[in-house]
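re: the backbone from monday

yeah here it is again, tokenized this time
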């Protein structure tokens, strides 16, 4: 497990590998409403979403999904190390690339497309709720085509550190607190990226990691990464 994952799991208060609660780090107990502010990402576990959670399509099994992800990871070249920094995105705080990260964007684009055959159609209630959320026309098209609006041109790589935090001063305090807490790890670019499958037994429970795979494909010098178009599960 990467040292950043260990630090962030403690920050959130839960290890998605084991499902176990983790003691929060010293010095953050006085953050405003820390328990409530981290509740949303705690349920998901520390990660960056590449393909939004989905139910398996008819005729698709969890085993076939895992086999497909393993094959994808074996063929996709390693993602170069990326500089990450805590920042505010809307009303929450997340780790984001400190500079453009085209390899991460290419990976996310391909994951959305490649694994689309495994996704069951959106529940009509979920679809309608999303459509009512003030989406752009392009985002509406994404939602109807691949089940999530914030993909492709509208994708912004992030690793969530808080849920919604209403006050700007509180968001800034969380941002600075995580920078101080994980500064030694974030001082160097983060490498060793893996792709993982998460599973949520039902919506009342948290997500846990089923398995992860390193990206071990052969880099193609001077070319883009391979164009691989790969229950409630997510990757």
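seq for it, each position gets an aa:
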């Amino acid at each position: 497990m990467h040292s950043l994952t260990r630090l962030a799991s403690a920050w959130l208060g839960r290890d998605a590998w084991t499902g176990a609660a983790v003691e929060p780090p010293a010095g953050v107990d006085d953050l405003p409403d820390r328990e409530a502010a981290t509740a949303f990402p705690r349920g998901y576990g520390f990660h960056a979403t590449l393909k939004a959670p989905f139910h398996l399509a008819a005729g698709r099994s969890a085993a076939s999904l895992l086999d497909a992800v393993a094959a994808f990871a074996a063929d996709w070249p390693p993602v170069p190390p990326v500089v990450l920094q805590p920042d505010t995105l809307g009303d929450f705080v997340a780790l984001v690339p400190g500079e453009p990260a085209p390899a991460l964007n290419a990976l996310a684009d391909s994951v959305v497309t490649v694994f689309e055959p495994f996704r069951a159609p959106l529940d009509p209630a979920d679809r309608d709720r999303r459509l009512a959320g003030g989406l752009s026309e392009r985002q509406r098209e994404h939602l109807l085509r691949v089940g999530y609006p914030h993909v492709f041109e509208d994708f912004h790589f992030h690793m969530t550190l808080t849920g919604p935090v209403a006050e700007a001063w509180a968001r800034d305090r969380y941002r600075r607190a995580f920078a101080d807490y994980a500064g030694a790890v974030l001082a160097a670019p983060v490498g060793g990226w893996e792709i993982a499958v998460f599973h949520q037994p039902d919506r009342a429970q948290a997500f846990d990691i089923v398995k992860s795979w390193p990206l071990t494909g052969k880099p193609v010098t001077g070319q883009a990464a391979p164009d691989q178009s790969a229950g409630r599960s997510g990757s």
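Residues 3-234 form one domain. Residues 168-186 form the longest helix (19 residues).
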